[in-house]
Amino acid sequence: MRNVNSGYRRLAVALSAGLVWCSVALGADMIVLGQSLNIGPDSDGGGLRVMAAAKGYIDGVNAAGGVQGRRLDLVTLNDDGDPRKHERNVRELITQRGAVALLNCQGEASCRASAAVTAVLKVPLVGPLSGASALARSNAPWLFQVRASGTREAEALARQFKAIACFRVAIVTDAPESESVAALKSAMGGEGMTATVLAVPVGLPGDSVQKLIKSLGGEGFHGAVLALQLPTAEALVDLQLGAREEWPRVIASLASPHLNTLLAGFKGRLFGFTTVVPNPEAGNLRLVQEFQRNMDTYGAGHAVTFVGMEAYINTRVLVEALRRTPRLTPEAVAATLSQLNDLDLGGFSVSFARQRNQGSDWVDVGVRSRYGQLMR
Question: Tell me, what CATH number does 261's domain have?
Answer without folding.
Answer: 3.40.50.2300
